[in-house]
Amino acid sequence: MPPDFDLDLPSLWFTNSPPLFSAPSMKANGPTTSAYSLRRSFNSSGTLQNVLVASVRWLDDLSTTKVQITWKDTDPLHTAHAQQKHFPPPGPLSLEDLDKAHRAYGANIAAWAESSLGRTVGDGECWTLAQQALLDLAQMYRAHGQEPPLVSQGRSHGYCILALSAGSPGDNAGLLQLADVRRGDILQMENAHFKTVEEAQPVRQQWGKWQVGRGKRNVRLAQHTAVVVGVEGEALRVVEQNGGVPLAVSEGRYDLRDMVVGEMSVYRVVGEGWCPALETGWE
Q1: Three-state DSSP class for 107?
Q2: Do residues 96 and 85 touch, judged by C-beta distance below 8 A?
Q3: Cβ(160)–Cβ(267) below 8 Å
């Protein structure tokens, strides 16, 4: 659990409309998503009292920090008072829970992505494909009275079932099977570099012989999101946006044996009950 943050109350950032949340010390702690509420009421002496409650979700582990700040309009600098609460990340899920989540959401997520092939979803960025798939399916599940999938929290797309870094050949062998990566899971890559030596098509030389050339294919991905649609040994077949085709949805394939630099995570989409929406109540 993190210690209380220095909220820098003397800067009066919380008095802006809307408040310039969050405080610099919190921003430095890592990426977040947040929600807030602001209540204003007059006390018995006729002074306007403000109560700001903000909930911050830390995207690295999905833990939560809540902040409440109260102040009087007449003298915010000297009347501001803050409290903080910290909540742990969501708990671990069992293999049974993960299997149930896959059966509930996996096929629909993969089918949604495949139905988008050749199109541009939203702004054409890779992350938008996964986010829009989850948003659309969440709406459908709610309409049928079923638990909707948890939508992407930054670059976290559910429950992380596999996290690995590039290593020497063989280091990551069998991990896709060990982690039980399945169709409909979501792939997230950071600073990944895939280097593939490919056999070129045979070319007939002037003297009548066939010669097979070898070429290198380099794929560099600073940050990339894709939907898994199949597992083939050490490779993932994916549907991705802004990957092989700029700003459009296309098919792709990533082989762990070809990853020479970077990190890869695979997420199992789960129900939103595992990580409920942020609330802005204090009690």
Answers
A1: helix
A2: no
A3: yes
User: How far separated are the first and last CA of the chain, in Å rounded?
Assistant: 19
Q: How far apart are CA 82 and CA 77, in angstroms?
A: 12
Is the distance from CB of 199 to CB of 175 less than 8 angstroms? no
With CA atoms as reference, report the closest residue to 66 among 55, 51, 52, 82. Answer: 55
Among 149, 104, 152, CA closest to 126: 152
> What was the pLDDT predicted at 196?
74
Token pair recorded at residue 138: 């969440």
Among the listed residues 116, 187, 102, 112, the one whose alpha carbon sits nearest the alpha carbon of residue 152: 187
- Are the C-beta atoms of residues 110 and 228 closer than 8 Å to each other? yes
Whole-number Å distance between alpha carbons of 76 and 72? 5
Residues β-bridged to residue 165: 263
Report residue 280 as tokens: 């802005």
Residue 204 confidence class, pLDDT cut points 50, 70, 90: very low
Q: How many CA atoms lie within 13 A of 257 on its CB side?
A: 10
For 114-168, write each residue's pLDDT tens digit. 999 999 999 999 999 999 999 999 999 999 999 999 999 999 999 999 999 987 5
Please tell me the predicted confidence (pLDDT) of residue 18.
81
